[in-house]
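Mods, move this if it's the wrong board.
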Amino acid sequence: MRDESKLEVLTTILDRVSIIMGIVDKSGKVIFANRRFKSMLGETAELERLRKIGKISPGKPFYININGVNHGFSVYEVEHYTVFVGRKLEDTGFFSAKALDYLDFVFTALRHELGNPVNTIKFSLSVMKENILDYSPRRIMELIDRLIEEIETLEKVLLMMKNLSGWGKINLEKIFLSSFVIQRIELFKMEALAKDIKVEIGEIPDICIMADPIPLEHVLKNILKNSMEALSRKEGERIIKISLKQTPDYAILEVADNGTGIPEDIRDKIFLPFFTTKVDGTGMGLPLSQRLMVSMDGFIEIESDEKGTRARIYIPLCRE
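Not the wrong board. Structure tokens:
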């Protein structure tokens, strides 16, 4: 059998197997996608759709929910190509184990976030009950003010949970990126300058994107705020660079800082709800931002090392 015939037979077999398979070259171009791969990611089978879950590392499995269906993938490097092999996970225990770990983290965080104010409220009410006849009106008002503060804390946690579970209806519209970004960067530049942080903006062409301007502005502000906070711990020159790259399907807005970077042992936790290393942080900024971008058919990618952090916002381009 000739090599061409062997290749045709192999391609036919791979096209009909039940697993999901795609092969990508070093430039990111998909050179082979079997039928299930195309049906999952669309006819274009663009690699960016897979990268919603963050940076892909060869040899490390990852999980992704596509159109409400959970999938697991393994990534392999074969010579100059990257091979993706995946399957649905409804019939296996792998995703459920990961989901249980995730739920355990969220429930632990909720217990902490809700437990602290509840304990304070309970303690304050107990003190008032035991001393109501002895306390002056001023002291009682102090305790009531403290109760109100703790109730407001509970309200904030519930609001964050509501925001994460549903921002509301997303209304996609055509937006010209340059004018959108420049308008929203000006105030940020003044705030950064006041903190001795230099902001450099690269060329941002006025290309057309499809997004909802309100949640997109929220995402951009959150990413910029994170960069500024990361630089607050750095000595010497502090710089935030804003630039734009483009793929056939996405505008990629990158916000890069020259801070100390995210510690390696927590990089895989930054999109978990309630996870934070900040004293006054909520741990909801990045999870909510990622959710908003995914609802607009985009996503956020974070890359970090000792030289700084690079946050990339993938925004779908307008379709003719």
